[in-house]
Amino acid sequence: MTFINNLLQLLNSEMKRPIPYQSFSESWFHYLSFAFMMILAIFLSRNLKHATDRKLRKYLLVFSIVLLSFEIYKQVIFSYQSGWGYQWYAFPFQFCSTPMYIALLAALTRNKKLRDSLIAFLGTFGLFAGLAVMLYPMTVFISTVGINIQTMVHHGSMVAMGIALLSTQVKLESKTILKASLVFSILVSIAVILNAIHNTWIEQGTFNMFFINPILRNDLPILTLIQPLVPHIVFLFIYILGFMFVSYLVLLIGILLFKPKVKGLKMIYSKES
Questions:
Q1: Closest CA to 128 of 258, 256, 252
Q2: Where are the domains of the chain?
Q3: 164-181, pLDDT tens digit by residue?
Q4: 3-state SS track over 30-52
Q5: Cβ neighbours of residue 251 closer than 8 Å, sequence gap 6 or more
Q6: Quick check: 170 and 49 in contact, CB under 8 A?
Q7: What percent of the chain has pLDDT over 90?
Q8: Phi, psi at residue 182, to the nearest 5°?
Q9: Which 3-state string (H, E, C) describes the chain?
Q10: How many Å apart are CA 146 and CA 132, to the nearest integer?
Q11: pLDDT in tens, 244-273
């Protein structure tokens, strides 16, 4: 028991809360995390290029296990910090939580069409979600060392894996966003059900999965202005379309950066011939 208590105290160690985009002494943690993200993105992109089906599934499985392991740590520490009362606000089904489940399913399924849709989600919606946090991490940084490490590993890995998949595995055409959006819509539906279950039967603490609980305010940019003005079902429709639009922009950037320039290749080939 003493060992467990000492371990929990170690995992609950504190640090000065990191601040992004300041001097190195204040923002070193953020800068280091960003550097780790970029190195990992390069590593994954090189290793997933021309990867076999087995190798791709292996990387997705490792990615998922790492994120899930850190998530378990987060759940334990948040409960420990509150005297072992469960913190419903930290329930692991926010938008940024879903890549660890999606990657696990993509690694385990043998249905190629399903895996393609899941990978499309990770390379668009998942990449956008991770990048949003990595670029502006102020709301996720706290004074607990392990939680700061967890959130940077989690979101940084989302970006790195998203870039790698977008550049090597995602089919770079506009209709790919429809596959990714279908996955996102299903996840939103699950969040709606979870919010309804909590509102009806549990009613403890703050529970706002995907920030779309109708009894709570949405604090996301732009959406916070729209929510009070329209019926909830209309808000959900706008919510899905908004995320779909931003993720489509991510896909378009991927097409611009990573899609082979067919005309250029043909010209080179004809000259060599």
A1: 252
A2: 27-183+230-272
A3: 999 999 999 999 999 999
A4: HHHHHHHHHHHHHHHHHHHCCCC
A5: 123, 124, 166, 170, 172, 174, 176, 177, 180
A6: no
A7: 89
A8: -65, -45
A9: CHHHHHHHHHHCCECCCCCCCCCHHHHHHHHHHHHHHHHHHHHHHHHHCCCCHHHHHHHHHHHHHHHHHHHHHHHHHHHHHCCCCCCHHHCCCCHHHHHHHHHHHHHHCCCHHHHHHHHHHHHHHHHHHHHHHHHCCCCCCCCEHHHHHHHHHHHHHHHHHHHHHHHHCCCCCCCHHHHHHHHHHHHHHHHHHHHHHHHHHHCCCCCCHHHCCCCCCCCCCCHHHHHHHCCHHHHHHHHHHHHHHHHHHHHHHHHHHHCCCHHHHHHHHHHHC
A10: 21
A11: 999 999 999 999 999 886 544 444 444 544
Per the listing, tokens 């967890």 go with: 150
Question: Measuring CA to CA, how many Å separate 273 from each of 162, 231, 267, 269?
Answer: 37, 63, 10, 6
**Residue 229, burial from CB neighbour count under 10 angstroms (0-12, 13-18, 19+):** exposed
Please identify which residue in the block is written with the tokens 């929990």. 8
